[in-house]
Amino acid sequence: MLLAIDVGNTQTVVGLFSSRELADHWRIATDAERTSDELALMVNQFLGFHGSSFEEAQITGVAISSVVPRVTAALRDMSERYFGFLPLVVEPGVRTGMPILYDNPKEVGADRIANAVGAYDLYGAPTIVVDFGTATTIEAISDRGEYLGGAIFPGVEISMDALFGRAAGLRRVELIPRSTRSASRPSSRSRPALSTDSPGRSMRWSTGSRARSVSARSSRREVWQSCCCRTAGRCSTTSRGSRCTA
Predict the structure, then answer these.
(1) Burial of 21: CB neighbours in 10 Å, binned 0-12, 13-18, 19+
(2) 214: three-class secondary structure by DSSP
(3) Are 9 and 123 in the same domain?
(4) Where in the sequence numbering do the catalytic residues fall?
(5) CA distance 156 to 206
(6) Which of 96, 99, 168, 240 is the most exposed place for a label (fewest CB within 10 A)?
(7) What are the b/e assignments for 30-68, b being 16+ CB within 10 Å?
(8) For the chain, percent helix, then strand, then coil, each to nearest 5?
(9) Does residue 46 sit in the same domain as residue 122?
(10) 126 and 218 inside one domain
(11) What's the CA gap between 12 and 147, in Å, rounded?
């Protein structure tokens, strides 16, 4: 069994793989103050939901993609102490099999490399990857499987925090996923043009539209086959404005 851990600035996702199949996964808030023992306790509890534990899960490998250095260090300690081996951490020097066409490949974040390698494995190339996380990132992969680069801009929550922090007359609203919104509220055609949810709807639409626009600009350079949207906590609230295959 492989334990895969994706540490983002806002949330951390833990996945349990059996061969190439995802057996289960869990999402928690990222907290740089957690110790290796606290992380081990949480992982063990997650394995318990799957009907297993450290001893019974037969974890043979731990893979980590992290953008929070303090959490990376704690996870290294956790893996070495509780599993008895060092984890594979996506970082400079690790061979992923994907050429990175940057002057300094070390400047590319581990999360962006993991997105690109994962999308290439699932969808082939050429491919565009959109990640709606703390920051919205877009990665481009050539038809030869090369990482060409991409774009990064503020995520939907960061944008809303900035908007409500500077605009005193706007009331903070909750970002509601489309599925929940459609089930609990009438259609947009039956609602007034102006509502307290206008900032939220506008932010969702603008974030998705920006991702779609950047993807379209990249598409004019080469013939892209697919656009992979990686769920990172906010994909369900922003995907209306972008066209993705997953």
Answers:
(1) exposed
(2) helix
(3) no
(4) 111
(5) 9
(6) 168
(7) beeebebeebbebbeebbeeeebeeeebebeebbbbbbb
(8) 40, 25, 35
(9) no
(10) yes
(11) 24
In a shared domain, residues 27 and 148: no
Question: Which of 89, 112, 131 is the C-terminal boundary of a domain?
Answer: 89
Q: Which residue has the tokens 């951490």?
A: 89
Residues in the chain: 246
Q: Are 7 and 77 part of one and the same domain?
A: yes
Task: For residue 149, give both structure tokens.
Answer: 């680069």
pTM of the model: 0.78
Question: Amino acid identity of 11?
Answer: Q
pLDDT attached to residue 228 = 53
Q: Are 59 and 45 in contact (CB under 8 A)?
A: no
Bridge partners, 136 (sequence order): 132, 153
DSSP H helices in the chain: 36-49, 54-57, 69-78, 110-123, 156-166, 178-184, 198-219, 235-238
What are the tens digits of pLDDT across the range 177-235? Answer: 655 554 445 555 444 444 555 666 777 777 777 777 776 666 555 544 455 555 455 55
Looking up tokens 């300690």 gives 77
Comparing CA positions, the residue from 236, 165, 232 lying closest to residue 199 is 165
Q: Which two tokens stand for residue 68?
A: 């929070």
Amino acid identity at 24:
D
Q: Are residues 136 and 204 in the same domain?
A: yes
Q: For residue 10, what is the domain's CATH number?
A: 3.30.420.40
Q: How many domains does the chain have?
A: 2
Domain hosting 175: range is: 98-246
